[in-house]
Design a protein that fits this description.
The protein is built from eight helices and nine strands. Strands 5-6-7-3-8-9 form a six-stranded mixed β-sheet, sandwiched between helices. Strands 2-1-4 form a three-stranded antiparallel β-sheet, with helices on one face. The protein starts with 23 loop residues before the first strand and ends with a helix. Helix 2 packs across helix 3, helix 2 runs parallel beside helix 4 and helix 3 crosses helix 4. The protein is α/β, with parallel strands linked by helices. The protein is 35% helix and 21% strand. The chain binds adenosine-5'-triphosphate and magnesium ion (MG). Magnesium ion (MG) binds next to helix 1.
Length: 275
């Protein structure tokens, strides 16, 4: 996906600045919620370095700290201990990364196009450039011609596509996704996985994707990190060498290499959860 030209931007100085490379550095990070008897050590210590362009999938049992780690990378929260850096800087919500949640969290009173337009406005894209960019983003997620539809007129899978378009709007070099397809039916989920795999291969963005599913992890990841139970630590770091582009999705899913990886991840998650 190409960056907007300088003349089309106003404000939001970091958004879409692809000189930010999307790399992530997590140094000795732990996170604690609450105080006294309410104190919960949710995560850590974790050390992780994610180079630009990697598609990192985080898997682990429920409550092990996956969303916590994602929120720290997004800059929604600051780590209790250690340091998190995105593109060499302290992460800033909305500027250093785009985020997609489990639920689409769209504005229901705005149209499909209106939701994407708002994100473009926040990212500093000038009004004159926004309609074309909005339509380009909607086409990118397979929603061409839907800009004027109301949010309640489209399906759950389509709403999640709008949420992805919105996260791509700022053209940040890092995309964070927290179980974005968990609430969808199996067929829609597979289609969206295929589209996301393609979008990420084309755009060269760094991505961090949280899931419970070994199948989803094996299909999407260029690297898979399995976390232990709470407080989440890295149990296993699996490099993936399945082809990233130019491969038929069904062929990939049917290959023995994919089956072996899926089994390895499934086994690692179960072992980490039982430890
Ligand atoms: N804001 C919060 N205040 C207090 N405790 C929290 C808060 N957010 C998360 N926790 C606790 O921290 C731990 C890790 O939570 P987190 O949401 O990161 O887990 P998760 O791996 O994303 O789980 P799931 O797979 O169920 O989404 C859990 O025990 C959770 O109850
Ligand atoms: Mg979570």
């Amino acid at each position: 996906m190409s960056s907007q030209t300088d003349t089309s931007r106003i404000g939001a100085p970091n958004a879409g600045d692809r000189t930010l490379d999307g790399s992530i550095r997590i140094d000795n990070v732990s996170h604690i919620y609450g105080k006294g008897t309410d104190r919960v050590t949710a995560l850590g210590p974790v050390d992780l370095t994610v180079p630009p362009g990697e598609f990192l999938v985080l898997v682990g049992a429920s409550g092990c700290g996956k969303s916590t780690l994602l929120r720290l990378i997004a800059g929604f929260e600051s780590a209790t201990e250690g340091s998190v850096q995105v593109s060499g800087t302290t992460p800033t919500p909305g500027l250093t990364s785009g985020v997609v949640f489990q639920q689409p969290r769209l504005f229901p009173w705005k149209t499909v196009g209106g939701n994407v337009d708002l994100a473009l406005k926040y990212a500093g894209i000038s009004k004159g450039a926004r309609v074309a960019r909005r339509d380009q983003l909607l086409a990118r997620v397979g929603l061409e011609g839907t800009a004027d539809r109301k949010i309640w007129e489209i399906s759950g899978g389509q709403q999640q596509r709008v949420a992805i378009a919105r996260a791509l709007a700022a053209d940040t070099s890092l995309l964070l996704l927290d179980e974005p397809f968990a609430a969808l039916d199996a067929l829609t989920r597979e289609r969206l996985q295929e589209d996301l795999r393609q979008v990420s291969a084309e755009s060269g963005r760094t991505s961090v994707f949280v899931t419970h599913s070994a199948d989803e992890a094996a299909f999407l990841g260029s690297r898979i990190v399995v976390l232990t139970t709470r407080p989440g630590q890295v149990a296993l770091d699996i490099p993936v060498d399945l082809p990233r582009s130019g491969v038929d999705a069904d062929e990939l899913r049917g290959s023995p290499e994919f089956a072996a990886l899926r089994a390895e991840v499934g086994h690692a998650v179960k072992t980490a959860a039982a430890a």
